[in-house]
Amino acid sequence: MKQLTGLAVMLIAALALFAGDFVGSSQSSIPDRDVPRLVTKLRGYIANDGVLMSSKYVPMWVQRAVSDFSGGRETHVPATLEVRNPLSHCLFVRPSPDHKVVHAFVGGSWQKSAVYVYDDDIVREKAARFIEKYKNKGRKLAEAYLSSPEGMSVTDVVITDTSQPLYLVLTSQSARLWNIQVARGVKIAHVAVMSNRHAGIANLAKDIPIEFLTYKKLKACGVFPLRRPKDHWSFVRNAKASGDTKLINKNIQGHLKFAKFFRSRFGASPEANAVEVNVASHVLIGDVAPTLEGRVPHKPITGSHVVLTAADNVTASKQSVFTAKFEKQVIDLASQMAGGDLSVLEPAS
Q1: Which of 77, 182, 309, 319 is 20 to 30 A from 204, comparing alpha carbons?
Q2: Is this model's pTM higher than 0.85 or not?
Q3: How far is CA 318 from CA 63, 74, 206, 321, 325, in A?
Q4: Residue 2: half-sphere exposure toward Cβ, Cα within 13 Å
Q5: Burial level of 319, CB count in 10 A (0-12/13-18/19+)?
């Protein structure tokens, strides 16, 4: 093994320290540096990992709202998985008159988990590609092209609103594991989850009802979640600068259709009492505590109970373990597709 230079050792140590603020060991102290500025992309703000977003688009370090923070990693394995079917219809339980509807709508997240949810069509697609590569390049290179799905992305939802019992609506446009962080005195009456892909919830009290409308079921209901286009979105700025606003109008119409569905089910606007952001690993519903002593103790995915929507394959393990298992699954299927003997695919020398 080559010896590391002094500079390399210092660089590795610095990277490890930097990572600790976000996905490493538990952190309670607020990082002693400026909060990274929000980046504006096609569909709005992107917040760096470790940055908490509120409804007012004011970024802050997540440690301002939670103590003992431990971010999402693909080595953080939950204790138990519970699989539930999504709704067979399009009707969520309506909020009661005393419920306050609050909404988190997050497009993507930087955090990853050790929870893997995928359907058999992905395995079939990978097996077909493996066979094609095997025929053209041989087994060694075919195996080199194998890639496994990533762990579900994680968004921490820090909830401090104690004004009324909350009806919590969680919306994403990609597979999402929502990690719930509840302050003392918060009462969650019901949770409704919508996603274009699979979804799950961690660290929610087991007596709180959850309803999922996700993936193919959501599509069957004719629902496509869209946020209202905002002036700071780069695609909106570009369209206005070019004088061609057709794409803006199309997105507005899509949002209005989603808003109509949202109101019909929850009796509120999707933009009321809402935090909406393009990409964020952590969002806040409510206000931060006036003192650090009042912060919410952070609960990691590690050792948690996770409730997930049903899929052909649902598992939780460290990334290296899952990768080996998934690649074997693909190669075994490829072997079946090849008649039981992959060697017949070997290209002529």
Answers
A1: 319
A2: yes
A3: 26, 6, 25, 5, 11
A4: 5
A5: middle
Write down the H helix ranges in the chain: 6-20, 120-137, 139-144, 215-220, 234-242, 246-266, 319-337
| CA-based end-to-end distance of the chain | 36
Find the length of the chain: 349
Using CA atoms, how far apart are residues 3 and 190, in angstroms rounded to an integer? Answer: 56
Taking the C-alpha atoms of residue 103 and residue 201, their distance in angstroms, rounded to an integer, is 15
In terms of Cα–Cα distance, which of 94, 98, 116, 113 is closest to 169? 94
- CA dist 90 → 97, 212, 221, 262, 329 (Å): 21, 10, 6, 11, 34
Distances (CA, A) of 183 to 67, 118, 159, 187, 205: 11, 33, 6, 9, 13
